[in-house]
Amino acid sequence: MRTPLVALLICLPSISFAQNYEQQIQYRQNAFSAIEKQAKVTNKALDKSQPDWLLIESNSQELAQHAQNLTTLFPQGSEEGSKAKTAVWNKPEKFNQLLAQMEQGFQALYQASNHQDVSAALAGLEQAQATCKSCHRSYRSRW
Question: What are the CA-CA distances from residue 11 to residues 6, 16, 57, 63 (Å)?
């Protein structure tokens, strides 16, 4: 009777640890999906003759927050069950640099939205989206 109980107590932390990764994988997939959707909506809003600056500001703030959150959602060991290539964990320097560039682009978009500057907002959005494409080519297993 004690042996199964001891085995369960030994395995329980690793089971709990694996569940944390599933949750982090889900969070990061949701963040990437939200980024894709909000970036499209924001781009359309910026293309209008009368941009909806409240929408753009709100979206850009959320985009920057998602990008910032992503920097913590790729811990070592969370590659199993992920759509990301193992290079994210094996060679994280460039990956982290691209995440930082994406966040900078969204921060530039947010600052431009505060000043209602269409060209600067588009430049920030373009910078962020360019890093998305670069990152997908290098680090995503399934497009």
Answer: 9, 9, 47, 38
Q: pTM for the whole thing?
A: 0.81
Q: Each residue's pLDDT tens digit in the chain (143 positions)?
A: 454 444 444 544 444 444 568 888 899 999 999 999 999 999 999 999 999 999 999 999 999 999 999 999 999 888 888 888 889 999 899 999 999 999 999 999 999 999 999 999 999 999 999 998 888 888 886 54
Cα–Cα–Cα angle for 113, 117, 120, rounded to 5 degrees: 90
One DSSP character per residue, 2-40 reads HHHHHHHHHHHHHHHHHHHHHHHHHHHHHHHHHHHHHHH
